[in-house]
Write a structure and sequence with these properties.
Elements (H helix, E strand, L loop, with lengths): L1 H28 L7 H22 L1 H15 L7 H14 L1 H12 L2 H10 L4
């Protein structure tokens, strides 16, 4: 148990570097304006510290779900960002949140986009 906890702690410490890498790769893959990597790294580390404390207090699944919801809410165009679709919307849909929130989504997003989103998720 002690060894597993040590490995978990080491993995937690690697999260900021991993997130920085993913952000940089995602922006490049989507031909979006690049950010200075040092600024991304600084922002990720600043955001990670309180999240790490919340993980300790509430658990990984709850924090993961909250981060996914925030990604969808703060993204200016989730229908255009594959990373948000694949890593936030799809997992939320698999949890059933999309089905229970379809009416709300249709109020915020064009109905056509919600329909295409559902089709992309296999009709979830």
């Amino acid at each position: 148990m002690a060894e597993a906890i040590k490995k978990f702690e080491e993995a937690m410490d690697q999260i900021p570097e991993y997130v920085t890498t993913i952000i940089m790769q995602s922006r490049e893959a989507e031909d979006r304006k690049p950010f200075l990597e040092a600024l991304v790294r600084l922002a990720v580390r600043a955001a990670w510290e309180p999240i790490k404390k919340m993980v300790d207090a509430t658990g990984v699944p709850e924090i993961q779900r909250a981060c996914r919801i925030l990604a969808v809410l703060i993204c200016p165009a989730p229908e255009k960002h594959k990373a948000v679709q694949d890593r936030a919307l799809l997992p939320l849909a698999k949890e059933g949140l999309l089905a229970t929130s379809k009416e709300r989504l249709e109020r915020v997003f064009p109905a056509d986009w919600v329909r295409r989103l559902q089709e992309g998720f296999g009709g979830v």
